[in-house]
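FAD-dependent oxidoreductase
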Amino acid sequence: MSRILPADGVAFEFTVPVVVIGGGAAGMVAALAAHEQGAGVLVLERDALPQGSTALSAGLIPAPGTRWQRDAGIEDSPERFAADIIAKAKGESDPAAVARVAQAIGPALEWLADRYGLPFSVVDNFSYPGHSARRMHGLPSRAGAELIDRLRGAVEAAGIDVLCEAHVTALYAAGAAVRGVEITRPDGSVERVGCGALILACNGYGGNKALVERHVPELADALYFGHPGNQGDALLWGEALGAATRHLSGHQGHGSVAHPAGILVTWATITEGGVQLNAEGRRFSNEAQGYSEQAAIVLRQPDGIAWTVFDDRIAAIARQFEDFRQAEAMGAVLSANTPAELARLMKIDADALTATMADIDRLKAEGGTDDFGRSFAGSAPLVPPYRAVRVTGALFHTQGGLVVGDDARVLNGQGKPLPNLYAAGGAACGVSGSKASGYLSGNGLLTAVALGRIAGTAAAGAVSGETSQ
């Protein structure tokens, strides 16, 4: 339904200076930023309640040089963060795009805290793979649901209009300039709304099986853990308007979704010294590389299943996350005092698990590196009671998308900006390159919040300029 229709002769029911498609973090932040610049804003959300992929995430946003880091004695800078992003993506990400979001994200979080009361704090008790400083920021529950709830509350308190159950099924354009949108309601009725500028904040194409098969075939049959509304509308509209695209095979996977509970299990279970085993009780990879690339690796195991094994110390760290507490409450996290007893609960071979655990103990005691290249130097031993959770690999969201410039305006194939189209979050090309392994933890919410604020500010400025001429 991602159509482009001619705007000539179309009568719009009403016209709004800035229209935002999508009510996730990118859309809400864009709306707040545009509203602050004095622009009239309308957010269009296809669901009955704005949530998006944000609500399914851990709600953690990486940001360098923040006051929360300084209070915790953490040294960091945008340049250091940018270097980490580029290193994880093996140099594939555009340095200008990386610098843009690395510079913008810290001030954006402090703005959300100071202006809208979002109580961020930094996760200072464990590190994520690829980050050279502890720079993950989250709200008290460490859950994406709280993040989107608070952003939605801020938008409502600001008096910004949010229209729910409003599925945008077409754009009206004159050449490459967007003049309005077609909204289809659940009862099939259609409305037409004009706009001065349009911000695409409707994420990528993770929920569109045909596009996933085309661009990310290795995860075509994987559990999709993103929002079902991520149908690639922004990508398809942008392409039809002549937009440039980049890194369409890039994506964020996750190798630790509790199965069959369908709950994200924090990667702290691995970074703090846990491991993953297959149904045969054997390790199969260097888990410490990152959770995104681990998704496809887990899916290659028998039945696409793995077990994440850790201990009570690690579980205590993981409990700061609402998702992990839910997994425990549902009985998804097993506990036993010996490897043999744990194997019985896991219904796997006890001898194999006992041997694997002994090998891990040896590697940790020696500070050695295993055959997969994982170093266990400085890693605390696993001690009883042991914990295990059955997991599978999943696709969370896509990272490729529309190429944008410094003001988050969408660029065409010649690098020139389209007249009034902006993109943020998963609708825009991210900073993770073309592979799952290029995804540095938090890259998704990084571009949602940073580009959302940039897009909202720029779109409001553009329509204000038109009005004053």
